[in-house]
Amino acid sequence: MDAAFTAEQEEIRRTLREILGKRCGPDEVKAAVRTTAGHDRGLWQQLAERLGLPGLAVAEEYGGVGCAPADLALACEETGRALLPSPLLATAALCVPLITALGTDAQRSALLPPLAAGGLTAALAVPGPALATALALTGDNTAGPWSGGGRAGGVQARAAAAEGGWRLYGEAAQVLDGHSAPLLLVAAHTGGFARSRTLLFLVREDAPGLVRSRQTTLDETRPQARIQLRDVPAELLGEDGADAAGVLEALAATGRTAACVLAAEAVGAAGQALARTVEYVRRREQFGRAIGSFQAVKHRLADLYVQVEAARSAVYYAAWDPRQGALALAQALEALRMAAGEAIQLHGGIGFTWEHDAHLYFKRAAADELLFGPVHRLRAHAADRAGLFTPSATPEKVAV
Question: What is the pTM of this model?
Fold first, then answer.
């Protein structure tokens, strides 16, 4: 593996850092998350038009840039530094790969170009707090009816023979950007008990019976919504008779890519939290000297620097080998949690105030681990898949 960045990748990172440095400071972030959309629409369009950010990993034939998922992950390290509130994760990391993998030719041609251009955003709706399971990050997505199996619960789908389509009913909470995305990608259970399976459906924002409400969240930079589907007309993603196993595999593959993107965001946020803390301890004085000159503070920051750099190395490795995405995500989330905690501690009394900028990083760390973790489950599932704790075969008896 060659971890060196190309000139194009370095240019994307430099330009993105320059734009976000001017338009995405802490005050701008706080203002953007309180808008109806939950993000700065003007900044989103600028990133789409100037950098093609939402279309980085979309094939050129569909109007995208045609880069590898690694390029998207590297760009997201910069968005993580600024804690950019945007539909990038929900649209480019979750929905675009699923539409690319499962959609028909007509669906890909109709949806991918506007998604790549940033004019259309999308959200993945998974019933209950099961997003990490659906993406096979913390457990096997083939085990258990996470989409709402049985006769009730979750989201149910039934074929509407007279209309030639499908109808959905049920509820999904904690849907990232679900309150504002014009396109919803809904995971629903169908087939009843005998033919139980999970399929994905496309739902438009103007569909009758669709009710969306924005939820109050710990991390406002990741707006979430509750989606209610009251006999809503929907379009099956893919061909009729879609293979449920193929849907679950596509979700797992999307989870691997999304884990790399999330890990890159987390390590970018951790690095920025560390940088802001180092800057503060250099100029904050106690007892006539900068607090950063005290040996205890130096040791804490040195340990934190090692942890952040180790997480960054894991993220770069996973960017080229997405199979390691879950482990990189665990490492990055842990580094972000530690960096945010130390930032609050070392900022002293002002750092403990809820309104201080350090808490933006703390909230991101806590919310991401609740949505996509926790860390110990990410590692445990990766260990199970690698067979690290599989009992060895019984040794042969040795004659004495």
Answer: 0.92
